[in-house]
Amino acid sequence: MLQKLFGFDPAQHKVRTEIYAGLTTFLTMAYILAVNPSIFSALEPMGMPTSAVFTATVLASIVGTLMMAFYAKKPFGLAPGMGINAFFVFTVCLGMGYSWQFALTAVFIEGILFILLSLFKVRELIANAVPTGMKSAIGGGIGLFIAFIGLQNCGIIVADKSTQVSLANFDSPSVLLALIGLVLCGLMVVRNIRGGLLWGILLTALIGIPMGVTHLGELFSAPPSLAPVFLQFEWSHIFSWDMFIVVITFLFVDLFDTIGTVIAVSLKADMVDKDGKVDGVGRMLMSDAIATTAGACLGASTTTTYVESAAGVAVGGRTGLTAFVVAVCFALALFLGPLFLAIPAAATGPSLVIVGVMMIANTTGVDWDDYTEAIPAFVTMLMMPLSYSISDGIMMGIIMYVLMKVGSGMKGIRQLSPTVWGLFVIFVLRYVQKSL
Predict the structure, then answer these.
(1) Same domain, 386 and 334
(2) Residue 94, domain extent
(3) Are residues 50 and 124 in the same domain?
(4) Is residue 131 part of a domain?
(5) How sure is the predictor about 136, in pLDDT bands with cuts at 50, 70 and 90?
(6) Same domain membership, residue 399 and residue 302
(7) Are 414 and 331 found together in one domain?
(8) Rounded to a whole number, what is the distance in angstroms from the first to the last CA of the chain?
(9) Range name among 18-27, 156-165, 266-275, 338-347 with the lowest pLDDT average
(10) Distance CA 54, CA 44 (A)
(11) Count of domains observed in the chain
């Protein structure tokens, strides 16, 4: 039964491990339940209720993650993406002056295009065309990125006017708790405790109660109405240039964020064959595409595969059962929102740092002695955390990869596939368009 539903093999997988993995992934993703409505609160004066955004966020996450569980049978969680939600709010709506209904329409169109690209295996072709060394660099880069996100979320790294980022002062209980959590999560892994990251998160949250960081309130609350944002599309500008630009931007960011995430987490889960191709990538990308389309109907911004899924993979999640557990947790969050949100970022952030350590191991697949491979790989890894974008890291890396291979002579040029050349041209045009 479990094998048919989730690809669960009793000879290789354990139910307990998959449940641990699902809980761990959910806890590292749960911040989106607070962060996404917070970002969209800027649109409240434009008539988009923040409470409805919370419900849309949860439901979009459930739909996308269930697709990943039953259709792709992979251990990944999905939710409205970070970064692209800010583009939705602050660029499309507040910057360009369009309504949130216009932006939701653009997300819906993007989702349809994604489904078509997935049906014709264009996304799968792109994912498998990325050179093996670059795939390893993507995994390592996302490891750095997710660790950076974790340090920011828990307050250890803060903004600084002079140096952009800086180490926080240790006089804050939240920062002290995060440092305790970092040690606890690290020791759980060092001691090889099964489900160690999950236990590290929970133990840190409990320690946070007497410190005044973890606040337990009411347990149950009815989910807010979805009606204000459900199927709220605006078709009057569908053929405008601005709609084209917005859709293409959503398309690019989601495409390469998802491909980067799928490659990185699949490497961690040993879901890559000897030729560097990701096992079942077509179904994973289709799940992502359907989730984006369904999410737009529900009133959510682009729904995508979450890199935090690496936390669940790190504790042994390998099948769709892990994703199913994540979806069940999101469903419970509709009614237990205050309880789930009581786990502070100071408790979940440290686990992301440990996951970053685990993912940096992917860089052993880079040939560091070959500078035509090493330089693009390093640029990819460096750009992800510094630009705060997985997609920019991939695009800059591919551009550098082609330039280094071309500059090395005919031997390097022969290593470039037509797909990589196509990506190079598209990425260069993307940055040209962005600079105009």
Answers:
(1) no
(2) 2-137+231-342
(3) yes
(4) yes
(5) confident
(6) no
(7) no
(8) 55
(9) 266-275
(10) 13
(11) 2
What is the tens place of the pLDDT at every residue in 300-335?
988 988 877 888 888 888 888 899 999 999 998 888
Contact in structure between 54 and 62 (CB atoms under 8 Å): no
Which tokens is 269 given?
A: 């889960």
* CA angle, 168 then 306 then 327, to 5°: 115
CA distance 417 to 428: 17
Using CB atoms within 10 Å of the CB of residue 98, give its burial: 0 to 12 exposed, 13 to 18 middle, 19+ buried.
buried
Asked whether residue 179 carries a pLDDT value surpassing 90, the answer given is yes
- pLDDT of residue 241 exceeding 70: yes
On whether both 324 and 269 belong to a single domain, the answer is yes
Q: What is the pLDDT of residue 276?
A: 62
What share of the chain in percent tops pLDDT 70?
A: 93
Burial of 237 (0-12, 13-18, 19+ CB in 10 A): middle
Helices marked H in 68-154: 84-86, 100-119, 122-129, 132-153
Q: Which of 292, 326, 342 is the last residue of a domain?
A: 342
Question: Band of the pLDDT at 28, cuts 50, 70, 90?
Answer: confident
Output the CA–CA distances (angstroms, integers) from residue 317 to 25, 77, 181, 309, 416, in the order listed.
9, 11, 22, 9, 35
The residue among 116, 108, 117 whose CA lies nearest residue 238 is 108
Angle between the 345-359 and 173-190 helix axes, to the nearest 10 degrees?
40
Amino acid at 408: S
- What rounded mean pLDDT belongs to the chain? 84
pTM, entire model:
0.72
| Closest listed residue to residue 360, CA positions, set 75, 197, 137 | 137
Torsion of CA 87, 93, 99, 103, to 10 degrees: -10
Q: With contact defined as beta carbons under 8 Å apart, do 22 and 312 qualify? A: yes
Answer with the one of 274, 308, 342 that is the final residue of a domain.
342
Candidates 65, 38, 63, 66; CA nearest to 50 is 38
- Between CA 275 and CA 273 the distance in angstroms is 5
Mean pLDDT of 365-369: 89
> For residues 73 and 48, is the Cβ–Cβ distance under 8 A?
no
Query: Is there a single domain that holds both residue 331 and residue 386?
Result: no
Classify residue 80 as exposed, middle or buried by CB count within 10 Å of its CB (0-12, 13-18, 19+). buried
